[in-house]
Design brief:
Elements: E1 11-15, E2 18-22, E3 34-40, E4 45-51, E5 55-61, E6 63-68, E7 71-76, E8 79-83, E9 89-92, E10 99-105, E11 114-116
Antiparallel strand pairs: 1-2, 2-3, 3-10, 4-9, 4-11, 5-8, 5-10, 6-7, 6-9
Length: about 130
């Protein structure tokens, strides 16, 4: 049974002022899911995009302005975004402090199934 120390997770180059660590990765015992921890700086976020699988984003700290389809809402700590496959979504930290989020996917390499509708892919996937 793998127990993963988040402080030992490798940081993945992502976006300016947006830090991401892959908590699970191939070879750790997971076969069909992925989890990452991110710190989203004020004024940054993810441009509008879709995934071919579900995505779950748990806000641990701060507030994100999230767009899910045609709905825009502020999502704060202790709230979860449930994003169905192929639904356009994105978010920006418009708060006054960095936001911390956990992101879950039911696949190991979700960004191979990501389609950007606005903006550019992150550094690792450009």
């Amino acid at each position: 049974m793998p127990i993963i120390d988040h402080s030992s997770a490798p940081e993945v180059p992502w976006r300016p002022n947006y830090r991401k660590w892959d908590i699970t990765r191939e070879g750790d015992g997971t076969t069909s899911s992925s989890v990452s921890l991110s710190t989203v700086g004020v004024g940054t976020g993810a441009p509008l995009h879709t995934h071919e699988s579900d995505e779950i984003i748990v806000v641990l700290q701060g507030t994100l302005r999230a767009r899910l389809g045609d709905v825009v809402a502020d999502v704060s700590a202790d709230h979860t975004l449930v994003i169905p496959p192929n639904v356009p979504h994105g978010f920006t930290n418009e708060g006054t402090e960095a936001a911390r989020i956990l992101t879950f996917f039911p696949v190991q390499r979700p960004f191979e199934q990501t389609h950007y509708l606005e903006g550019e892919p992150p550094a690792t996937h450009s």
